[in-house]
Design brief:
This protein is about 40% helix and about 15% strand. Strands 3-2-1-4-5-7-6 form a 7-stranded mixed β-sheet, sandwiched between helices. A hairpin with a 5-residue loop joins strand 6 (about 235-240) and strand 7 (about 245-250). The chain is an alpha/beta fold and about 250 residues long. The chain has 2 domains: about 15-45 and about 185-215, no CATH class; about 60-185 and about 220-250, Vaccinia Virus protein VP39 (Rossmann fold). The protein has 9 helices and 7 strands. The two termini are about 20 Å apart. It is globular and about 50 Å long. Helix 3 crosses helix 4, helix 6 (about 160-175) crosses helix 9 and helix 7 runs antiparallel to helix 8. Keywords: Methyltransferase, Transferase. GO terms for molecular function: methyltransferase activity.
Length: about 250
């Protein structure tokens, strides 16, 4: 992984998703429009449909397995790791971690009570090494150093910069390390191509609608470094243009 240095930010809430050094085009390729999953005026059936689509697509393209491999790599030297998943949604990531690590204990959480209820009613709710909870990633109800690793997969882009910085601070308060797995923010020309591909489907398919907005809200490397500087934590970023972006966040000192 590599560390990146960003320009200072006077007001983190106003930082572009492309970071303090974002070009004018990059600044145009963002939105404050919420996804269906973030809206109170959207029927829960639509939200559950988006979550099911995320689960199906994650299984089809082996995203869950690859994300679990990243989690397990971060705790490879910890005998009995205590893991916290934030924004779990459907719980597929934690399910694989529990299957592949015989002594890991996992707290599986989401801010959405419907998602938490669905996970509690599944096999995760009865797993002896799993706990399912309603938690806010920006204000985690847990003591300091409760976990060896906190992971936030494919949900970080939902948060505006001020709340995203709070996740950095909270995640590294309750865990020795915070791992964020999310969408990368491509260079503007490639981003335009990606958006043009999604756009025709966004009007009729809720999953594509949310995917389009997710891309517009994804954070760049320099933005993530600026968030880390604001939160007072160290940030290491690794990403591809169209694959996942991984961020390892640790306390300074």
């Amino acid at each position: 992984m590599m560390a990146y240095v960003a320009k200072p930010v006077a007001d983190i809430a106003d930082m572009p998703r492309g970071g303090p050094d974002a070009s004018w085009l990059d600044r145009m390729l963002q939105t404050d429009r919420p996804e269906y999953l973030d809206r109170d005026d959207v029927d829960d059936k639509v939200k559950r449909g988006v979550i099911r689509a995320l689960d199906v697509m994650g299984s089809l393209f082996k995203e869950h397995e690859r994300n679990a491999a990243l989690v397990l790599a971060e705790v490879a030297d910890v005998p009995d790791p205590r893991i916290l998943e934030l924004g779990a949604g459907h719980g597929a990531l934690s399910r694989i971690v529990l299957d592949q690590h015989p002594t890991a204990t996992v707290t599986i959480s989401d801010i959405n009570p419907e998602s938490v209820a669905a996970m509690s009613a599944s096999d995760l709710g009865e797993h002896p090494r799993a706990t399912v909870r309603t938690l806010d990633a920006t204000a985690i109800d847990a003591p300091d150093d409760s976990f060896d690793l906190a992971v936030f997969a494919l949900s970080f882009h939902h948060l505006p910069p001020d709340l995203a910085a709070r996740v950095f601070a909270e995640g590294t308060r309750v865990a020795a390390e915070l791992l964020i797995i999310d969408l990368p923010r491509p260079p503007s020309p490639l981003h335009l191509v990606k958006l043009a591909t999604f756009a025709p489907f966004a009007l009729c398919w809720p999953f594509a609608h949310d995917g389009l907005i997710s891309s517009l809200r994804a954070y760049s490397r320099s933005a993530l470094q600026a968030l880390g500087d604001h939160a007072g934590v160290d940030v290491e970023v690794s990403s591809g243009q169209f694959d996942r972006q991984t961020v390892v966040v640790r306390r300074r000192g």
